[in-house]
Known about the structure:
9 strands; alpha/beta; binds NADP nicotinamide-adenine-dinucleotide phosphate; 9-stranded mixed beta sheet
Amino acid sequence: MAACILNDGFFSGKHMAAGLSHPPHIAFVGAGNMASSIIGGLIESGHPAECISAADPFPVSLERLREIAPVATYSDNLAAVQVADIIILAVKPQVMAAATDSIATAVQSNRSLVISIAAGVTIASMQARLGPEAAIVRCMPNTPALVGCGASGLFANDKTSAKQREFAQLVLSAVGITCWVESEPELDAITALSGSGPAYFFLFIEAMVDAGIALGLDAKTARTLALQTSLGASRMAIESDVDLVELRRRVTSPGGTTERAIQSFELDGLRKIVAKAMCAAADRAAEMAREMG
Length: 293
Ligand SMILES: NC(=O)c1ccc[n+]([C@@H]2O[C@H](COP(=O)([O-])OP(=O)(O)OC[C@H]3O[C@@H](n4cnc5c(N)ncnc54)[C@H](OP(=O)(O)O)[C@@H]3O)[C@@H](O)[C@H]2O)c1
């Protein structure tokens, strides 16, 4: 069972409610796309730049980050996490082992919360490097986080306190909505749904654009209408209390054009196609976790 929380702003004042006299210090290991987006979201939500640090071996990434906000930047991971309450591991899965090894001493002495956003890297594999007492939240974000409209699945190990869970949620809320899951394998389902999901929508929109062109529209018109239609449909569904089946029924007049199209989708087994594709994605996520393990 997942509990989903909508983004309702960020830290300003919330650290006090959580018993801290100062905003938590958040350190990023890896200063690429995801780190930049989360830092941008944190700053926008009122988290002070002086309570953020980041490390990356690539000076250009650090420069780009300083253009977003005057955060402290380091080429050395350990230096960046020295005073951190929360450490975000925002590196590619292949370099996670090196990244966790580099911060293990600080995590053990400071008891910092570690949040990993790397796909397929399990809590057990991180705990093996960070120590058995490490509080770790594993997160599966998605690419719309880059435009502040992400959807992240979160799972916390049993070393994570209620306050640390709250902070993990607040950090990820800076770039979208968050959903907690109660077992780690559920993150594979989240990966198959929202992690890979943006690509499914791009594919569907691509197919709609191609079909619009085949029906005689010019490419620009077909693309503009398809994109606005997907945005409009999502907003309608998010902003209304009405369920998806009823929303669909309301655009499907008996004997009309939509009904003809929906019948064609159902006849061709669209639901089965989607279910099969998502199963394949979830299986691959589990397989990747085993390979990384
Ligand atoms: N992008 C997304 O929307 C998305 C969605 C879901 C999950 N994720 C996950 O989020 C993580 C970060 O993705 P991203 O798109 O932000 O990747 P990215 O742009 O490649 O950023 C990763 C950064 O980490 C740096 N790095 C490499 N080794 C390091 C080390 N040992 N210590 C510290 N930094 C190191 C890289 O430097 P170099 O370039 O010099 O190697 C790079 O600047 C990945 O694990 C990805 O699977 C991303």
